[in-house]
Each structure stands twice: as structure tokens, then as C-alpha cells.
């Protein structure tokens, strides 16, 4: 352990920067072993800071070597500045000056993948949040916005493509014959949006004509062998540009928009101004190599990064505590875009299922934090589901409270008021409030309180007056550092059904409607619905109108009614999930108690109706048929018994399969999609139902079904069907599963993105030999510890498995901890992310919990990066 541990920084300590940088001129001289960066920073003291003689303190990483520093062309002698581990401090400065810094970096040794680094043969950058300081000394904070001019000098034969933000303004040669390219970005931006790429890349060109009839040049760059896989992303980009004009009135502002795909990237993609950089897994797509889910992911991420041009770049964050200002809003925007492109209900179900599984778990664990955190040790740890997904739910609730029109007025006001500024979540809410006249003062607590509120609902019906009353109680659990909570403003969308499933009109506070938005603002509140003749069945929290855990004691009959009749598609799904969770919890308890599992499943009734209703969207039917995941059941459980969860889920799936075998078989055949592959909603829906039906049919052990899996694997003309067949074979321990896995690898070994899928599936197999498998995967030629996608596939996949990771002897935990210790030095961000499954130790069954905790303690005893230290120390606190 280090002698002094990293310390936290606090939102309450925010101060405006003492200096500003009006212009930033950067020159990169790119060589194979070293890169020399020369910066000329046009600086002045910040009038908003007040009169001061404070020294100039610039941020820089350990990996930046200072060659020289000059102020207004006066070269500073060593006694006039000081270099510490992460700062350059210059004691005496004028009020206005040009600071020149020359630094040396080694991109080829940069395994953290922050700052300037190499991926394959190219140079690329990742600067958010604090990567720019690994390039040169700077005021690396988002409220310092500067106009950048970037000069790239490189050998053109190796790096014919040299890109940075903005427009290319000059091109020439040095005396030694190297090529010089100059880029200028007219929009002031923080350093986190800086980007540079140099490499031997192929390009696909296109043009987008904006609503004001300006032509924007669009370019997507990849390594040559991948350029045939960017057509879908290009179309998605054009759809996004049009959508942002129509839905938000936001037009693109530069004359060129570029995207570059790189193989080594810590996350999905990055919204650098005019030059987005993408993990190739989030950009490349072809029918043979990409599944439907991945197609939709490409579209959503292309849209997300593009939308940041306004929500993030034109209006950015004042400090990193405000991260959700841009991320929550942009996730909401990309979710709405995807809903508009495909099915609104399907998209909502998928997003909510993810939120309830992963974000709720985070919000209930040791890393729980508010959407606007009050403190952090390492900001990279706060690119979380809470900041992104719960942040998007907050924006969605504002949309619900204001209505579409006023929400748009609020967003227009926000962009108009703050264009070119670095602002806060409070500024966003203020714009929404000012434009709409809706009071959001209590609502703002959603930004500052961590934890998922529970809403407990009870009801009563007064026959004499025809009045139905809902009583709602809200409670937000204690979270680290926040023992007590205040009531939040929760919008609850509610409809009422009669016992036959027909939608009822009722009156709430004089308003007659079939659906009402109730405002739960107190700890306990009553809502009265009048004008009813019989006790209704309530359809609560329609569309998941707030990120809460809603508890209402539905009977099985009620749930079956909602499942078949609710006009709200989301709540039909939600009812099916509640029914399934109830049955699974009964089975989990039987398993824990050592009883023989048995259940008279009512779910089968609901499933049968769905499988025989041709009027339904097959994608929705598939979502209803998908039983709650092991991860979601783990989130609900306390304590978690992994083996019991797995056993219960397998048992129920097999039982449903046997009861409904004929329906699954028929639906499988009926939903085959013939003809050329298209990633369109209708075909995606059919494939998803077909493959879900196959997964059940195979559970029965039926020979025809076993054969259908093999046939589909062999004859599929697209990755969705082929990979579905493979996954089903693996997950059902098909006799030929191992053969198919080998055949799949042989077929695709030259397609790294497909190999990643193979690694993930192989690593997450449920088997007692899982650990041996994972060890052999890490020794496989396809594996590379330096590539985040491969690490995520193997170690992330392993962390999801029930039998392998949670092996009773603790060997799964020990293995993961060993890998985290190795990666902690190489790539702290990735190492820190891998800790997530270990942070759940307090919720595990006692025998496993102690073993997991011991591994966290073992990690903590190491010399740790800030990233890993924060997660592990908070988990043990
Ligand atoms: N803004 C980036 C995420 C940067 C993560 C830095 N550790 C991608 C996105 O949310 O669009
Ligand atoms: Zn984002």
C-alpha cells in the first residue's frame, strides 16, 4: 500500500479558474519512438477570479517530460518554475502573456489509452476527462475554453491521413520532407474535446445538406480492410443530423464532420469537436459479422456522439461534477432518436430492463452516488450508469412534467442562453423552469440524492361514492455519506382498467382522462379517482415514468389481465416480469431450502396467449418471453445465492418450454426471415422472436430442435442467426456445442469483432470448468491484454457467469483479483471497471461473501492507481 492514499475533491470547493487561455496553438512532431509537442498558450488572468497574484499552476502527467518553457519568448531558467508529479508551477506571471512549452511524450508506451497513444499503426487521442494533461501541460478543466489551432508534422508515407478538430487550413512540407498539416477549430472548447489522428487510413465520403442548405462534408476513416463496414454508420449519421434539426432545431456548425474507428479504446466512442473517435466495435457493421443488437448499438452511439455537438460541445460542463449535464441529456436524446427510428415501446423496455438491472444495483452498492456527485477521487470512475442512465431518466421526467412543447421551449432556451459556455445542472433546470413556468425546485433533489426511491402503493375502493383511492409512500434508502433523504418529486403515470381489461375514464382533481400523471411530492400522499362503478385494476408507473422501485400487491389475475390488455405496452411487459419474478422467487427459495423444485406456472397461460396473437409486435413478444436475467434476479435478491438463481431460472425455462413446446416450434418456423439481411425493425423483430422461440424449443431436448440449431448455425446468412444458434447451443449444453464453438472460431478468426463475441460467449459459459476455460482463453492467440475489447469480453464475460465466477471455493474471485492487480498498472480505467462484480460482496450469501471480501482486501494491499483505489476502498468501507 502507498504511504499516502489519493484524496477526494469536492464540488463545494469549486472556484473559477485563475487564468484563461484564449488561444491554444499546438504542434505535434510525430516520430516512431517519441513525439515532441510544442504549445503556445495565449493566456491572461481571469477577471472573474478577482485580483490575484496567484502562481500559474498547469496540469500534466508523470508521462510528460518538460523540455523547455518560455514566457513571451523569454526562456524560463529552472529556478523560475517547478515541476511536480502532476503539475508545472510558474510563480511569477504577467496579467497577459504567451506561454510556450515544449514536451516529449512516448505514445507507443502509453498503455493507459489516455492522451496520445498508438492503436495498430495509427496515432490517436482520448482526452476526456483528464487525458489532455498526458499530452502537454495545460489548464485541463472543462471551464477553460480555448480556440485551438493544431499543426501535425509526420512522415506522409506512413501517415497519409493527419486529422484534428475543425477545418484543414494549410498543408506543406518541412525542409526534411515531412508533411505539415494545420487544422483550425473556430469554436472555443475545453481540452477534453481535443483530438488528433494520424495513420494510413481509408475513407468513405458523403455529404449532408443542412436545413439551411449548407453542405457538410462527412468522412468516416478506418483501416483499409474495414472500410466496407461503414455504410450503416454513415446512414445513421445522416439520420441523426436530420433528427436533431427536426426534434431540437439543432443544425451542425462546421463544414466537415469526421469519424475515425480505432481498435484500442477504453470505452465506446468520443465526441471530440468535428472529429469523433470510435471504438471500432461501435462503428463497423456488416450483415455477416454484426448482430441486430450491435447494429442498433452502432446507430445509437453514432447518434449519441453526434448529438453531443450541441449537448456537450457548444454547451459544456463547468466542472466534472456536472458530467450528467451533457451525458444524461444526450442519452435521453439518443434514446428518443432510437425510439423514433424503431419501436418506442421496445426501446423503452430495453432501456428500463438495463436500468433496473445495472443502475439499480449500482445505486444500492458501495459506489452509489448522486447523478451530480458531491465528491470523487478519480473522475473516470464516475462515467457511470447513474450519471448516464439515471441522468437520462431525470431529463425524461422533466419532459413528462413539462409536456413535449414546453420541454422543447426549455431546451431552446438552454442552448440560446448558454451557447459557448461551461455550465451546471442547475443552469439546465433553470432554463427548463423559466421557459415553462413549471416549478422544479423540489424536483432538483433528484440530482443530489443517491439511491433508488421505493414507492409503496396501496388502494381502496368506496362503492357508495365510486371513488378509488391510491395511497403512495416514498422512501429513499440511505447510501454512503447520505444517511437521510428528503421526499423527491415523482411523476407517476397511471391508468385504470376494468376487470375485462377495458381502459376506464376517471376524474382526478376535476380532470377527466384515461391516464393521469400524479405528482407524488410528499412522503405519503393520497390520490382520488372518481366516476367509477367498480373496483379497477391500476396500471401504475406507465412507461416507467420515474426511476423508482414500485411495490403494489398485484394478484396473479391482475398481472395476467395487464399482460394481455393494458394499452400501455411497457406495462404489459412489466406485468409479465412481475409474474415471472414471483414464480422465480418461489423456486429460488425452494432451491436455497434444499427442496425439490416445483411450480404450477401461471406464466405459461400468459405466454400461450401471446404466442397465439398474430397482431402483436414480435419484438415485444420476444421481450415478454425473455425471463428476468440472472443479473436482475441478483439485484432483487438479498442475500444473493447465485447457484439457486441459476437453478430456478433454468427450471422455469425448461418447464415453460415443455408446456408450450408446440407453440415454440410453430413460432420458430413462422418467424423465419428469408431474403437479404436488413437491419430494419420488422426483420429484427422477427429474428428476435424466432431465436427466443428456438431457445425454448431446444430446452425440451427435442431432436428436431437440436437439429434446427445445427441447421441454423450452418445456413444462416447473417451473424444474428448464426450467433443466436451458437449461443443457444452453448447455453443448453448441446452435444455439439464444443464443435460449433471451434467451427465458429475457424470461420471468423480474421474478424476481430466476431472473435470478441466468441471470447465473450466462451468466457461466460456456465460450467464447473469455466475457470479453466477462461485461463486457456487468456493464453489463446486471439487474446491481448492490451486491448480493452478483448479484456472486457473475457474477464467481463467471466464476471457475469454464475457457476464459474461464483465457484464455491472462491477461485473465480481470486482469478479476477489477480487480473485486476496486473491491469492496475497497465490500464487503470479498465482495471477499475473490472472491479464491479467484486463490489457486490456484502449482498452475497455468507460463505461466498467472505471469500470475495478477502480478494478486495488483497487488491487494496497493492500499490494502486487512483481508479482502482477508489472503487476498492469504497467497497470495503
Ligand atoms: N464522453 C465520452 C466518454 C468519455 C469517457 C472518459 N473516461 C463518450 C460519451 O459519453 O459520449
Ligand atoms: Zn456521451
Brief sketch in words of this structure:
This protein has 26 helices and 33 strands. It has 877 residues and is an alpha+beta fold. Residues 128-129, 267, 269-271, 304-305, 308, 327, 380, 383 line the site of (3S)-3,7-diaminoheptanoic acid.
What does this structure look like?
With 877 residues, the chain is of the alpha+beta class. It has 4 domains: 1-200, Sandwich (Immunoglobulin-like), CATH 2.60.40.1730; 201-309, Zincin-like (2-Layer Sandwich); 316-551, Neutral Protease, domain 2 (Orthogonal Bundle), CATH 1.10.390; 569-876, Alpha Horseshoe (Zincin-like fold), CATH 1.25.50.10. The strands form 10 sheets. It has an 8-stranded mixed β-sheet, with no helix packed on it. It has a 5-stranded mixed β-sheet with strand order 17-18-19-21-20, with helices on one face. The protein has a 4-stranded mixed β-sheet with strand order 31-26-25-33, with no helix packed on it. 40% of the residues lie in helices and 21% in strands. It starts with 8 loop residues before the first strand and ends with a helix. The protein has 26 helices and 33 strands. The site of zinc ion (ZN) has 4 residues, from α3.
Cα(first) to Cα(last) distance is 16 Å
Main-sheet strand order equals: 6-5-9-3-2-12-15-14
**Rounded to an integer, what's the Rg over CA atoms?**
28 Å
Shape: globular
Q: How is the secondary structure organized here?
A:
Blueprint: E1 9-10, E2 19-30, E3 35-45, E4 56-59, E5 65-71, E6 74-75, E7 81-83, E8 87-90, E9 96-105, E10 115-119, E11 122-126, E12 146-154, E13 161-164, E14 167-173, E15 179-189, E16 196-199, E17 202-209, E18 215-222, H1 231-248, E19 256-262, E20 269-270, E21 275-279, H2 292-307, E22 316-317, H3 323-341, H4 344-363, E23 375-376, H5 385-402, H6 404-418, E24 422-423, H7 425-436, H8 445-448, E25 454-462, E26 467-475, E27 490-497, E28 506-508, E29 511-513, E30 515-520, E31 524-529, E32 537-540, E33 549-551, H9 556-565, H10 569-592, H11 603-611, H12 618-625, H13 630-636, H14 642-659, H15 661-670, H16 681-699, H17 703-715, H18 719-731, H19 737-748, H20 752-763, H21 770-778, H22 788-800, H23 811-826, H24 828-834, H25 846-860, H26 866-876
Parallel strand pairs: 2-12, 18-19, 19-21, 22-24, 25-33
Antiparallel strand pairs: 1-23, 2-3, 3-9, 4-8, 5-6, 5-9, 7-8, 10-11, 12-15, 13-16, 14-15, 17-18, 20-21, 25-26, 26-31, 27-30, 27-32, 28-29
The chain binds (3S)-3,7-diaminoheptanoic acid and zinc ion.
The site of zinc ion has 4 residues, from helix 3.
Amino acid at each position: 500500500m502507498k504511504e499516502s492514499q489519493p484524496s477526494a475533491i469536492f464540488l463545494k470547493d469549486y472556484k473559477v479558474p485563475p487564468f484563461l487561455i484564449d488561444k491554444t496553438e499546438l504542434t505535434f512532431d510525430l516520430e516512431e519512438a517519441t513525439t515532441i509537442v510544442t504549445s503556445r498558450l495565449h493566456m491572461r488572468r481571469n477577471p472573474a477570479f478577482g485580483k490575484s497574484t496567484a502562481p500559474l499552476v498547469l496540469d500534466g502527467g508523470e508521462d510528460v517530460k518538460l523540455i523547455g518553457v518560455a514566457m513571451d519568448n523569454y526562456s524560463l531558467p529552472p529556478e523560475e518554475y517547478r515541476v511536480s508529479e502532476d503539475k508545472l508551477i510558474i510563480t511569477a506571471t504577467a496579467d497577459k502573456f504567451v506561454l510556450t512549452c515544449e514536451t516529449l511524450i512516448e505514445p507507443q508506451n502509453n498503455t493507459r489509452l489516455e492522451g496520445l497513444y498508438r492503436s495498430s499503426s495509427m496515432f490517436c487521442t482520448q482526452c476526456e476527462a483528464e487525458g489532455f494533461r498526458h499530452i502537454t501541460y495545460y489548464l485541463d478543466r472543462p471551464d477553460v475554453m480555448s480556440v485551438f489551432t493544431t499543426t501535425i508534422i509526420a512522415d506522409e508515407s506512413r501517415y497519409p491521413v493527419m486529422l484534428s478538430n475543425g477545418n484543414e487550413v494549410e498543408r506543406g512540407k518541412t525542409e526534411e520532407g515531412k508533411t505539415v498539416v494545420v487544422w483550425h477549430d473556430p469554436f472555443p472548447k475545453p481540452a477534453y474535446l481535443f483530438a488528433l489522428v494520424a495513420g494510413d487510413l481509408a475513407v468513405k465520403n458523403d455529404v449532408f445538406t443542412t436545413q439551411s442548405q449548407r453542405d457538410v462534408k462527412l468522412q468516416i476513416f478506418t483501416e483499409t480492410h474495414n472500410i466496407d463496414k461503414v455504410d450503416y454508420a454513415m446512414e445513421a449519421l445522416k439520420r441523426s443530423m436530420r433528427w436533431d434539426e427536426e426534434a431540437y432545431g439543432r443544425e451542425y456548425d462546421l463544414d466537415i464532420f469526421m469519424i475515425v474507428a480505432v481498435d484500442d479504446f477504453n470505452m465506446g466512442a468520443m465526441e471530440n469537436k468535428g472529429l469523433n473517435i470510435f471504438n471500432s466495435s461501435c462503428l463497423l457493421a456488416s450483415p455477416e459479422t454484426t448482430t441486430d443488437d450491435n447494429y442498433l448499438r452502432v446507430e445509437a452511439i453514432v447518434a449519441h456522439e453526434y448529438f453531443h455537438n450541441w449537448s456537450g460541445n457548444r454547451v459544456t460542463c463547468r466542472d466534472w461534477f456536472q458530467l450528467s449535464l451533457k451525458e444524461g441529456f444526450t442519452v435521453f436524446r439518443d434514446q428518443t432518436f432510437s425510439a423514433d427510428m424503431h419501436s418506442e415501446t421496445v426501446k423503452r423496455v430495453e432501456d428500463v430492463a438495463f436500468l433496473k438491472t445495472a443502475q439499480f444495483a449500482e445505486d444500492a452498492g458501495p459506489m452509489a452516488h448522486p447523478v451530480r456527485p458531491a465528491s470523487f477521487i478519480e473522475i473516470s470512475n464516475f462515467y457511470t450508469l447513474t450519471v448516464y442512465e439515471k441522468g437520462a431518466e431525470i431529463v425524461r421526467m422533466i419532459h413528462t412534467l413539462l409536456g413535449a412543447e414546453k420541454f422543447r421551449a426549455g431546451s431552446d432556451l438552454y442552448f440560446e442562453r448558454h451557447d459557448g459556455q461551461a455550465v451546471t445542472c442547475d443552469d439546465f433546470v433553470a432554463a427548463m423552469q423559466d421557459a415553462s413556468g413549471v416549478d422544479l425546485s423540489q424536483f432538483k433533489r433528484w440530482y443530489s440524492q443517491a439511491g433508488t426511491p421505493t414507492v409503496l402503493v396501496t388502494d381502496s375502493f368506496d362503492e357508495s361514492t365510486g371513488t378509488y383511492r391510491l395511497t403512495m409512500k416514498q422512501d429513499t434508502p440511505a447510501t454512503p455519506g447520505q444517511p437521510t433523504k428528503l421526499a423527491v418529486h415523482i411523476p407517476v403515470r397511471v391508468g385504470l382498467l376494468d376487470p375485462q381489461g377495458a381502459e376506464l375514464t376517471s376524474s382526478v382533481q376535476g380532470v377527466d382522462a384515461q391516464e393521469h400523471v400524479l405528482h407524488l411530492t410528499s412522503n405519503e400522499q393520497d390520490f382520488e379517482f372518481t366516476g367509477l362503478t367498480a373496483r379497477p385494476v391500476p396500471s401504475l408507473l406507465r412507461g416507467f415514468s420515474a426511476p423508482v422501485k414500485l411495490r403494489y400487491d398485484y394478484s396473479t389475475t391482475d398481472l395476467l389481465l395487464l399482460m394481455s390488455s393494458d394499452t400501455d405496452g411497457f406495462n404489459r411487459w412489466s406485468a409479465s416480469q412481475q409474474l415471472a419474478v414471483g414464480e422465480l422467487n418461489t423456486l429460488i427459495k425452494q432451491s436455497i431450502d434444499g427442496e425439490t423444485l416445483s411450480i404450477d406456472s401461471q406464466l405459461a397461460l400468459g405466454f400461450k396467449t401471446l404466442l397465439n396473437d398474430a397482431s402483436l409486435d414480435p419484438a415485444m413478444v420476444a421481450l415478454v418471453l425473455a425471463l428476468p436475467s440472472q443479473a436482475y434476479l441478483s439485484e432483487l435478491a438479498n442475500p444473493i445465492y447465485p447457484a439457486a438463481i441459476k437453478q430456478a431460472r433454468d427450471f422455469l425455462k425448461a418447464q415453460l418450454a415443455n408446456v408450450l413446446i408446440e407453440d415454440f416450434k410453430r413460432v420458430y418456423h413462422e418467424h423465419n426471415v428469408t431474403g437479404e439481411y436488413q437491419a430494419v425493425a420488422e426483420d429484427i423483430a422477427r429474428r428476435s422472436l424466432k431465436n427466443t422461440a428456438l431457445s425454448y424449443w431446444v430446452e425440451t431436448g427435442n431432436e428436431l430442435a437440436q437439429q434446427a440449431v445445427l441447421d441454423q448455425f450452418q445456413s444462416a446468412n447473417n451473424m444474428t442467426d448464426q450467433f443466436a444458434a451458437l449461443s443457444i447451443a452453448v447455453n443448453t449444453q448441446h452435444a455439439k456445442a464444443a464443435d460449433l464453438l471451434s467451427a465458429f472460431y475457424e470461420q471468423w478468426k480474421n474478424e476481430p469483432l466476431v472473435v470478441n463475441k466468441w471470447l465473450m460467449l466462451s468466457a461466460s459459459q456456465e460450467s464447473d470448468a469455466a475457470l479453466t476455460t477462461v485461463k486457456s482463453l487468456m493464453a489463446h492467440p486471439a487474446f491481448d491484454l492490451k486491448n480493452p475489447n478483448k479484456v472486457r469480453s473475457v474477464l467481463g464475460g467471466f464476471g457475469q457467469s454464475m457457476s464459474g465466477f461464483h465457484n464455491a471455493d472462491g477461485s473465480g474471485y481470486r482469478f479476477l483479483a489477480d487480473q485486476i492487480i496486473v491491469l492496475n498498472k497497465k490500464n487503470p480505467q479498465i482495471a477499475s471497471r473490472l472491479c464491479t462484480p467484486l463490489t457486490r460482496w456484502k449482498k452475497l450469501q455468507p460463505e461466498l461473501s467472505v471469500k470475495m471480501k478477502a480478494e478486495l482486501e488483497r487488491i487494496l494491499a497493492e500499490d494502486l492507481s487512483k481508479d482502482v483505489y477508489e472503487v476498492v476502498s469504497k467497497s470495503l468501507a
